[in-house]
Design brief:
By secondary structure, the chain is an all-alpha fold. It has 8 helices and no strands.
């Protein structure tokens, strides 16, 4: 992609509006939307992703991402689909680890937005953007119906389940920081 005249060369030269616009175009390349599915930016994914990137690493990874997009030629609304796809591919190649984290954040953010949740529900599927809070309604377990018949693994009756001794883990004095990486 040919960089337009006066196009910023790094994130420090971007206004907040241009930074948001650049990230919006980027996430739309990853999830462009279709028919009843909104493009990622229309669902607000670029804002969620920016917050998550900053929460995880401070401003550094967001600045690195914007710099990588600009170094790859930048993204504009007027760029052709081929040019935009080329820029995203260059970002992926230049900084694969950052790209993988951002792509995962984009996909997770997309499928938890209320707009996408509604689109999934309209397909007749039960879907909660945060199922860990209330879970899904399930019919009661029936051993005659629900016991696996494939003869792999095993089934333990509820009455035979015993608590695991966690006293050696020192859970009363130990806490996890940074998603379990540092203890």
């Amino acid at each position: 992609m040919n960089r337009p005249e006066g196009f910023p060369r790094n994130h420090a030269d971007l206004s907040p509006l241009d930074g948001a616009r650049l990230l919006a175009i980027f996430v739309d390349e990853l999830i462009p939307g279709a028919e009843n599915w909104p493009p990622a930016s229309m669902a607000g994914v670029h804002g969620i992703v920016a917050m998550r990137i900053c929460d995880a690493s401070g401003q550094g990874d967001l600045s690195d991402l914007l710099d990588a997009i600009l170094a790859a030629g930048g993204l504009t609304e007027s760029g052709s689909p081929e040019e935009r796809a080329s820029v995203v591919a260059k970002v992926e190649t230049a900084n694969n680890a950052l790209f993988e984290r951002v792509r995962a954040a984009v996909f997770l953010a997309y499928y938890e937005t209320p707009f996408v949740t509604q689109a999934i529900r309209r397909l007749g599927r039960p879907y909660a953007s945060r199922p860990h809070i209330a879970g899904y309604t399930m019919r009661p377990f029936d051993p005659a119906r629900d016991t696996p018949g494939h003869n792999r693994g095993f089934y333990v009756s509820t009455n035979d389940v015993r608590p695991v001794d966690t006293s050696g883990l020192n859970l009363d004095r130990t806490h996890t920081e940074r998603w379990g990486i540092e203890r």
